[in-house]
Amino acid sequence: MLAATLRYSVAGYNTHPLLLLLALLGFTVFFYVIYYRFAHPLSKYPGPYLACLTNWWKVYHTFRLDLHEAVLLLHEKYGSVVRIGPNDLHFWGPEALAPIYKAGRSMPKTEFYDSFTTFNPNLFGTTDDDQHALRRRQLSHGFSMISAREMEPIIDYHMGILRKKLDQCAKTGQVFDLKEYLGACILDGLGEMAFARSFDSQSTESPAVSNAIRDHILLACSIGQLPLQSLTKAAIAWSPIPWIRRLIQSRQQLKQQCAECVDYRISHPSDRKDLLHSLIKAKDPDTGAELTRLDINTEAFAMLVAGSHSTTGTLGMLFYNLFRNPAALREVTAEIDSHLLMLNPDQPSYSFDNLESMEHVVACVRENFRMDPVFTMTLWRRVTNPDGVQIGDNLIPQGTNVCIMNYVLHHNPDIWGKDQNTYNPSRWLDPEAKNNSPYLIPFSIGHRMCIGRNVATMEIYKMVTTLLRNYRFAPVFPGKKQSLRSSGIGELEGELLVRVSKRGNDSG
């Protein structure tokens, strides 16, 4: 009887249920592989074998912090279009920019952006074009260059703290991590602008908030690459694996901290000019609609995460590239010396006025944006036109996800020449450089371009000119070359160890 209950007849043969299940599973896998490898509309495009079957190829390289490099290697091997997911195509050439990122509603954002939601979808994460347009109108004034200049005293205050730390290091001759010092200064400044409070990272030297931001970005970019996000989020919420628990806890800690800061600021009104003040006062110029408290929490959280980490990563890579290229460092320092007097003890940094008029400074910053853009996310768009969309020589079918990472575009030798992998600021001093300017997209492109670029630009130029004019750095490099490591928003791999000395009035 027991044997009879464990077996049943199929087409006249006695078959064990487990064997039948394995057979069905085997046939399903077989036909899945055959379809996605040979019969899928994207099967003609080259790429890793695993990537045509599953999105886990992207997740794997996201966790390795080298997706940007892995995709670049694919293009160098296969050409202008590569398949990096079952339904995902990545492009290399500039002809892909306009069709993907300037096509408006016909190329909407994909579910990738949903993974960044903490409170509600923010300006960056929302896939609703109407909501994005409304929020952009509400926030545009608060992120204008005029508003950014009003927040310059906040940046100056925290740069003053940084300079006191550098002065102390100059006295003692100690070796320190410049990347860590820069990151703490930027984080405290953005914290005060976004939340009306500093995280005191410079005084406590605690990396807790910075680490939590890294965890949030890694979690979001990993989940975003996978289908069935709701199921994935539910599954990892119950995961017993310690490092996954850490990523989830980091996000929750940041979310709670943000809500507490916003609640305090709203309950203690102030006319102090900062990003949070701009959010509280923000209105749609067309309808007068204001942000709710939940909206304010949502956008403040996004400003802190993206604003601090991307600016910190950019500055770390910029100083690293200058230190490894002494000729460029000498040229940019000489130009800064010729334009700026040394700061008095009561001056924390230089005013942003006219800092962008120095051509060597601009060239160094732009070449850093090209060589190591820290915002390396796969900003996916979906083809919705039933007839598909023409991108270069390729007719891309409806339903395909498409993107072009700025890191990959910025290393295309057809645009930048054979020295595309070399930090060479002089390329931007060539009169013909303006022809390549449209292909330099560190802040993305189109109507979804980063709204915080004015604040970031001001911080970068103020930091570079202030530090190079008033200090001399002696880098302590490790044996191997350090690279950009990125889960979506990147930074210099490892530490940026230096010694520092104060410069004299002779500019030497």
Structural class: alpha+beta
CATH domain fold name of the largest domain: Cytochrome p450
The helix count comes to 20
CATH architecture field of the largest domain: Orthogonal Bundle
Helix content: 40-55%
CATH superfamily of the largest domain: Cytochrome P450
* Cα distance spanning the termini: 96 Å
Pfam family, one: p450
Protein name: Cytochrome P450
Transmembrane segments: 16-35
Cofactor: heme
Describe what you observe in this structure.
Keywords: Heme, Iron, Membrane, Metal-binding, Monooxygenase, Oxidoreductase, Transmembrane, Transmembrane helix. Belongs to the cytochrome P450 family. This is Cytochrome P450. One of its GO terms (molecular function) is oxidoreductase activity, acting on paired donors, with incorporation or reduction of molecular oxygen. This protein has 508 residues and is α+β, with helices and mostly antiparallel strands. The strands form five sheets. Strands 3-4-9-6 form a four-stranded mixed β-sheet, covered by helices on one side. A three-stranded antiparallel β-sheet has the order 5-13-10. Strands 1-2 form a two-stranded antiparallel ribbon. The protein is 50% helix and 9% strand. Helix 3 (56-63) packs antiparallel against helix 11 (208-224), helix 8 (152-172) packs antiparallel against helix 9 and helix 15 (293-323) packs parallel to helix 20 (453-470). It folds into two domains: 1-39; 52-502, Cytochrome p450 (Orthogonal Bundle), CATH 1.10.630. It has 20 helices and 13 strands.
Quick recap of the structure?
The chain is an alpha+beta fold and 508 residues long. The chain is built from 20 helices and 13 strands.
